[in-house]
Amino acid sequence: MNIMDETSGKEASATRGAYMSLRDMILTGALPAGEKLKIEQLRKLLDTGASPVREALSLLTSDMLVERIDQRGFRAAPASTENFAEILKLRCVLEDMALRQSIASATPEWEENLVLAHHRMKQLTGAASFEDAHKLFHMALLANSSSPMLERFCSQLYDLNIRYRNLASSGRNYQKRDITAEHEEILACAVRRDADATSTALLSHYRLTGAYLTSQLVNL
Amino acid sequence: MNIMDETSGKEASATRGAYMSLRDMILTGALPAGEKLKIEQLRKLLDTGASPVREALSLLTSDMLVERIDQRGFRAAPASTENFAEILKLRCVLEDMALRQSIASATPEWEENLVLAHHRMKQLTGAASFEDAHKLFHMALLANSSSPMLERFCSQLYDLNIRYRNLASSGRNYQKRDITAEHEEILACAVRRDADATSTALLSHYRLTGAYLTSQLVNL
DNA sequence: AAGTCAATAAATATCGATATTTTTCTAGCG
DNA sequence: CGCTAGAAAAATATCGATATTTATTGACTT
Questions:
Q1: pLDDT for B71-118, tens place per residue?
Q2: Nearest CB neighbour to B68, from listed A1, A54, A148
Q3: Element (H, E) at A37
Q4: Do B113 and B178 belong to one domain?
Q5: Which residues touch B191 (CB under 8 Å, ≥6 apart)?
Q6: A142 in the same domain as A63
Q7: N or C: lower Cβ tally within 10 Å for chain A?
């Protein structure tokens, strides 16, 4: 479902609030992979009714963050190195596709939004807000693909990837890569409308992160 | 979510019943694309409570058959030629990928299940049961990809395609293609483990159908 | 007339209470 | 002792009623 992009804050429905909270808790690992998600328990935790919780969980099913088994409730989607490998592979294929379509029909607005997203990302240092900006930058790359479903898949997979990043980051979070430079490179290639180069840079960015994360995921 | 594969019949939960019925109604066009789906109305139609209906609709969101707008209910996913084109394109990419992975690690069981699925499909003539067998055959091709998410995507897209097939079939359903022969060809190539040939045959099968359907979809 | 605002109607969202189903526990049996 | 049947506990699923929100209508201004 992915509501993240709505005008933030505001008074939203209880379901939406529950959806956002639960989504966040699963992505950050506050609700561990595979964990049974009991309605009553979550209801108290989020201080809301059972209906919103239940509906939020149903919705999270779309994002592959929650599994539902008829008549026996919900659980946080399990995590495994195989699953992570699958996500990485799919992301590479789908983002490559979306990226190329985006560049193929590039427009000034697309380019400007991309530059803007990159700029905003550079400004932000606080972990939480950087995460959001980082996603926005990556989605801005794909935003011109004229393929809403494809973008939705990419967005879903992006989130699933973040989840693994969080699951892995229990160990020391040291990486000797220069992420900032990688982003600059991606942006530069995109602005110059070089699909091959952008794709190479982007996939390399993902694969390097993927390899690193895989090495940290021994405990799965 | 896609529960279709569960052991059929049986006493299921009300939610599951509603899910199946609504899914069917959307796929067949009984609930037209874009239509507002009012809880009360469906509740009476399915003779069940509001909660199961609501939950079923939330679940159908995963399958991209229903859209949900916070605080103003649900509607059947809209249909358009653009959307259909998108589905076709994604199917070709994803099924190609799944198929190749399937063949790359082919096993006797996979092959046997495939042959079986094909045989069953040939037996069946009744429209409804043929549809099911047809899907099972196509999914059997991909069943060995070792990539559950990929298979899920393919399954979803397959269903969305069926929906367009039904939307299009208002016109006379005449096609001068020999579908049976196309299936034989796909099966033969797969059994001989020729990934390139199978992929070519499969994608051609899809693209031919796609072109035909597109021509019928003028009224969208 | 076009536009606005309030009142009404309709629909959605949510709650609290039960009915059902699954899981856990335990005592009796082989 | 391990196993199974059945009771008790826990959790899920569902209902019916109500609170909120959105959509509609129509009178009133300019």
A1: 999 999 999 999 999 999 999 999 999 999 999 999 999 999 999 999
A2: A1
A3: strand A36-37
A4: yes
A5: B111, B114, B115
A6: no
A7: C
